[in-house]
From TrEMBL:
Transmembrane segments: 12-33
UniProt key word Zinc: no
Entry keywords, A to Z: Membrane, Methyltransferase, rRNA processing, S-adenosyl-L-methionine, Transferase, Transmembrane, Transmembrane helix
Domain Ribosomal RNA methyltransferase FtsJ: 30-232
InterPro entries in the cross-refs: RNA_methyltr_RlmE, RNA_MeTrfase_FtsJ_dom, rRNA-MeTfrase_E, SAM-dependent_MTases_sf
Similarity comment: Belongs to the class I-like SAM-binding methyltransferase superfamily. RNA methyltransferase RlmE family.
The UniProt record lists the keyword Glycosyltransferase: no
Listed HAMAP family: RNA_methyltr_E
Protein name, entry field: rRNA methyltransferase 2, mitochondrial
Range of residues in the leader sequence: none
Length: 236
């Protein structure tokens, strides 16, 4: 009798774990769904880079947002973990790479884009391993956000409002100085809200035509997660 009760208890724990995992995965996908429905960042035929793509929910939403396979487009996911392309809601346009985004050179990321020209949309859902120390977690989150911005725009992130070049002007930067986000491209960065998030917003403001903050409805009330939505990268 005791063995039966233990078996039932283990089964209940396993069931709760599976339900919790699937629910969390659904919430992750729903966050991007809200962003996509509200801002229409991903268009048919565009190229999408998903930074921190585990467990794969954003890959699914991104692929579905591209429309039918005949429309073309591509989705590339990068994560320090090995992520298998989900069989549901994904097709041949989706691929994943196991690598540390913090150490991945820009030229190597550029090589992953269609025709090696860059990406139309960059999604950063990267999040540090939460330690429970809010200041430390926020600092690590900010570091990941800055890395996403650096990959997207390159040295342009160091330019101030005064010396940022207007559209139409040429840039003397080498290919290694430029980011992998195409002109008029969009960038989404997840952060843990803190004083540093304001700094990142100020850096992005002169680089993009529009930047706004969003806290998706699917975000837990206890979570400090917030998303910076940057639209239409200005010509570098």
């Amino acid at each position: 009798m005791l063995l039966v009760q233990l078996s039932r208890f283990r089964f209940s724990l396993l069931f709760l774990f599976i339900v919790s995992f699937l629910f969390n995965k659904f919430l992750l996908g729903f966050q991007l769904l809200q962003i996509q429905n509200q801002y229409k960042l991903i268009k048919p035929g565009c190229s999408v880079l998903d930074l921190g793509c585990a467990p794969g929910a954003w890959l699914q939403v991104a692929c579905q947002s591209l429309g039918p396979l005949k429309n073309g487009g591509a989705v590339v996911g990068i994560d320090v973990k090995k992520v298998k392309v989900p069989s549901l809601h994904c097709d041949a346009r989706v691929q994943t790479i196991s690598a540390d985004v913090m150490k991945l050179p820009k030229p190597q990321v550029m090589e992953l884009s269609p025709k090696k020209k860059g990406f139309s949309v960059i999604l950063s859902d990267m999040c540090p391993s939460v330690s429970g120390i809010s200041t430390r977690d926020a600092a690590l989150s900010f570091e990941l956000g800055m890395r996403a911005l650096d990959l997207a725009v390159g040295r342009a992130m160091n330019l101030s409002n005064d010396n940022f070049q207007n559209e139409g002007e040429s840039c003397t930067c080498s290919p290694y100085d430029k980011g992998v986000l195409l002109s008029r491209g969009h960038l989404v960065i997840k952060l843990l809200e803190s004083e540093d998030t304001k700094e990142l917003s100020q850096i992005c403001k002169p680089l993009f035509k529009k930047s706004t903050w969003l806290r998706p409805k699917a975000t837990r009330s206890s979570s400090r997660e917030i998303y910076l939505i940057c639209q239409d990268l200005k010509s570098q």
